[in-house]
Every structure is written in C-alpha cells, then in structure tokens.
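step=predict obj=SGNH/GDSL hydrolase family protein n=365
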Amino acid sequence: MRKPITAIIGFVCILSSAMQAHAQTFSWHNPMQEAVSVINGRAWDGEIGNSYARLPERFQQRVPLKVWNLSRNAAGLSVKFSTNARNLQVKYTIADAPQLPNMSRLNQAGIDLYATNSSGQTHWIGNHMLWNWGDTITFTFRNLETKAGVYELFLPPYSTVTSLKVGCDEGASFRFIPSRKEKPVIIYGSSIAQGASPSRPGLTWTNILKRLTGYNIVNLGFSGSCLMEPVLFDAISEIDAKCFIIDPIPNSYRLTDKEITDRIRYGILCLRKKSKAPIIVSESYPQADIVFNPHAEERMRTANKALQAAVNQLQKEGVSGIYYQFGKDIPFTEDAMIEASHPNDIGCVAYAKAYERMLKKIFRK
C-alpha cells in the first residue's frame, strides 16, 4: 500500500502548488508597451516594431512564402528584465500550429528562463511543471532566491507569439532592459539553426552559443528552407554584423553542385560588397549512425565537397575574411541526435561549442 499512498501524496503536493500558483496575485508587464524596444535577437529591431517576428513586413513579397511564414516564429528572440520578485509568471498566446513529430511540446511552444544574480553567475530556472497549456499558456516560477536579479526569457523557436506578459509579485521592483545594440552575429541556416530539436528553447544551439560567448546573436534559421536564394543574401547584407554564419547544407544538399556553387558564391560576394565582417561557412554535421548505415546522406557529403570547393575558389581569388568549418569539427557522438537529422540536447551543445571555438579563433577572445 505504500506506493499508492506515496503517489497520492505526491499528486496532492503538485495540485496544491498549482493552486497556490493560480491564486498568486501578480502585477503585469507587457514588452510591447515599452517606449524603447526590449526584444533581443531581431536584426531589423526598430523596423519590426510591435511583433515577435524576425523579418520586417517589406520582405513579405520578396522572400519565399515558407521563409516568410517561418520568419513569424520567435526563434532566438528573448526579453531581459530585472526584478526582486520571488514569484514570476509568464502568460502568452501563440498562433495555432500542428505539433511537429520531431519536437517536444516544451521546445516548440514553451518558454525558458535564465537568471544572473548579483555575483554575475547565470543559472537556468525550471518551473517544475507549473504550467498551463490552454489557449493562453502560462509558466509559473515560484519561491525564487535570486533577490535582485537580471532575467532572460527565451521565446519558443517554432511558434508565432501573438501576445506576452510577464507577471511579478505585487509591490516588487520590475523593469524591462532595452534590447542590445552592439553588432550581432548573424546565423543563417536550416531547422537546426531555427531550433530543432533539443528539449527546451534555452538549449537550441544558437541560444547556448549566446550564453557561451556573450555575443548578440540573431537567429535566421528557416526550417527546411535554407536554400541560399539570392534574395535572402540581399536581405542579410543589409545588416551591420559582427560576423555572418552560413550553415546551409542540411537543406541545400537538395540543390545540384552547380546551384550550391553559384548560390554560395553570390552570397559571399553580396555580403563582401557591404561588409568586412568575418564570414563562417559551415559544412553539415557528421553522420552519427554511420557504423550500421554507412550510405545514408551520401548526397549531403557530396554537397559538402561542392561547398568547400566554392569557398576555396573565392579564397584563391582574394576574397578575405572567409572561414570554413568542417563537419568533423562538430564532435557528435551516436547519442547526439534524435533521428539522425536533428540534434538533441547533446548535439546542440556540440554545435554551440564548435562555433564558440571558431569565434574565439577569429576574435581571439
């Protein structure tokens, strides 16, 4: 009888905590009602305005439809705020979308919270399943001991956020922190860059890289749609960036070798016309299940060779500031992926650390 009794007690404790969280009185703060932008991770921050999107409206008729629709997703976006509250709640709504089979609900539509205390130490904060997945989603964080702290709220990478509020204890201090203005690291890539498929938003490799380096990161990952169209490079070239990362092969392997060569050549020369910022071009990840499946993704391996040859040719022609990352530089283990196409938490850490090493090499940080 002990196990049923223990289970009942555990359920009562969870139910009690949930009821307390529901009864908590909060004062509410809307990022979109601030006088200055507080949304991090947007390259066209001022132009996008009151939207949790990643491309401005003027691109709607220029970029492919799927890219445009995916640009409405909040991948890589975050909001920072300071408060001394012990209890917080995030309340938000998202546009209807089917649940993706290769994605946890928590990563596709959830939020993630980190905090930096007065000693400068940053830690993740779990919400211990104090959530409500209704039409309005709520995540509650209770009995926090950060005292006065700076929080960063990562938004869902595969959902279109239509409204969001942050609640804190009534009477507690609270202020949003203006968005970062320093030159960003621009990441243009596939579903892997957008945020597939770790367990939660803070563990997408671009968000891990942001915490590892402290750089201002802009996520321009578009699931299944990183095909290096000239119009995308035209758009990206508008950005005054610290560095450009181009990670196309997980999608662009579907192109012919000539298309890969022509498109990466156009892209790099387009960026070089307007910017002297370093450009990192990356091969696809190493095949994690190669022992028993040695022929899988042979076309992707061939596509990597076409990409490398195009970059080598540009370097021979004197185009400066191009750096090449080989697939082997992303140290995947067999446990790094969910289905051999998208990295899990382990794989995302490997991705982020590979790019961290490359950025350190470039900037000698």
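step=describe
The longest strand covers residues 161-169.
step=end
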